[in-house]
Write a structure and sequence with these properties.
three-stranded antiparallel sheet; Arc Repressor Mutant, subunit A; 3 strands; DNA-binding; 150 residues; homodimer; globular; mainly alpha
DNA sequence: TTTAATAATTTGACCCTCAAACTATTTTTT
DNA sequence: AAAAAATAGTTTGAGGGTCAAATTATTAAA
């Protein structure tokens, strides 16, 4: 079989399986009421200063309406704090609560373990090439994203 | 930056945007009534002989109930043919219609462009190394997925 | 001060998913 | 051969996730 078909098949399979594994890791972990989607929102909010809804929505490539719904639930579950900005009262600032920070760190440890597992499996040369390939892939999706933007 | 951080960042970004972009590429194309999920079902059914529900569901890692719903809609939209097996009347055989085959090929061109973007600037040797690396990772994650199976 | 623009939320409609109950059929056991 | 068990799919009910469009509140521009 030619190399392109093989690469394509491997990538497709890899993405699907990593998704499944991540989902399982989240739901069987300490924070059972956090969905995979919730976790991505938590990651996007991040550990630094509070962010507004629009910027987080842009990071996640969803509408602010969609983010509002996700944040409603995360606030109710106690992972996210939400306050109206004093400087500009249209703006809503969201940040991770203590519990949210713990969930973030918990999940980032999962990432670390996964990356470590990947790196362990590969030779130095393979690591370099993989990094290069992923960078290219990222670039491809970025430009495609710009081109197909609504 | 060290390889681990780079890999992690790339993976996080990729997972964040891949689905969104793929969905957009599909919906802005010729086949506007096909969702990303529909397309994955179409891919899983494939261009060869008809498959039964259970085997396609296993490929996609969903329950047969979920697949039934997706196939209902694809049959209604004219992308999939569904017939009961004569040999074993419990079995339902699904296959791509002409329209389904065209959609399959249309989407495979998106994948081709993606792979081309990756491979473009890699030497032949690097391509070999990447293939080997991805194969290794696939094998590794397969066994991990099996181990953590419900 | 009216008019625009901006930030977020709400609403209504779809899509996706699963577990569990159910139907129909085939296979195994007795 | 009749009864029981296994298998293949479908249906149902409930929970998430998504968007576009309408709405509210606030700020910036004319």
């Amino acid at each position: 079989m030619d190399i392109r078909s093989t690469l394509n098949e491997m990538l497709v399979r890899l993405f699907r399986i990593v998704n499944v594994i991540e989902e399982r890791a989240i739901r069987t972990g300490e924070y059972k009421d956090v969905t995979a989607n919730d976790m991505h929102v938590i990651e996007a909010i991040g550990m630094d200063e509070a962010k507004n809804m629009t910027s987080v929505a842009r990071l996640l490539d969803v509408t602010t309406g969609t983010l509002t719904i996700a944040v409603n639930s995360l606030v109710k579950k106690g992972y996210v704090d939400r306050v109206r900005s004093e400087a500009d009262r249209r703006v809503v600032l969201i940040s991770l609560s203590e519990k949210g920070r713990k969930a973030y760190l918990h999940h980032s440890r999962f990432h670390d373990r996964m990356i470590e597992a990947i790196v362990e499996e590969l030779t130095d040369e393979e690591q370099q090439v993989l990094e290069k390939a992923l960078t290219k892939l990222n670039k491809f999706f970025m430009t495609t994203a710009d081109r197909t933007k609504s």
